[in-house]
Amino acid sequence: MPFHVRLRFGPPSSPAVTGTWDSEATAERKFRGLIGRYGSRADVRIEEQAELHPMQHPY
C-alpha cells in the first residue's frame, strides 16, 4: 500500500512537493523530518496519507 507525503508552502492552490513510498516507516520518517524542518512556519501545510484499497475503510 503506497504512503504519500505532501509539503505545500501557501494556500491549497499553491504548488506542492510530494513523495510516495511503499514503506510506512519511510513515509513516517520523511513526514516527521518535514515537520522538524518546516513545521514552525505558518504558511506550510504538511500531510501524510495512506492509499487505501477500495475495499478498505479507515474505521
Can you give keywords for this protein?
three-stranded antiparallel beta sheet; single chain; about 60 residues; 3 strands; alpha+beta; globular; about 25% helix; 1 helix
Summed up, what is this model?
By secondary structure, the chain is of the alpha+beta class. About 25% of the residues lie in helices and about 35% in strands. The chain has a 3-stranded antiparallel β-sheet, covered by helices on one side.
Overview of this structure, please?
The protein is an alpha+beta fold and about 60 residues long. It has one helix spanning about 25-40; strands at about 5-10, 15-20, 45-50. The model has no long low-confidence stretch (mean pLDDT about 85).
Helix content: 25-40%
Count the E strands: 3
Unreliable spans: none
Strand order of the largest sheet: 2-1-3
Given the helix and strand composition, which structural class is it? Answer: alpha+beta
Largest sheet geometry? 3 strands, antiparallel
Assembly category: single chain
- Strand percentage lies at 25-35%
Radius of gyration: 12 Å
Order of helices and strands: EEHE
Note the total helix count.
1
Overall body shape: globular
Topology diagram in text:
Elements: E1 3-9, E2 16-21, H1 24-38, E3 44-50
Antiparallel strand pairs: 1-2, 1-3
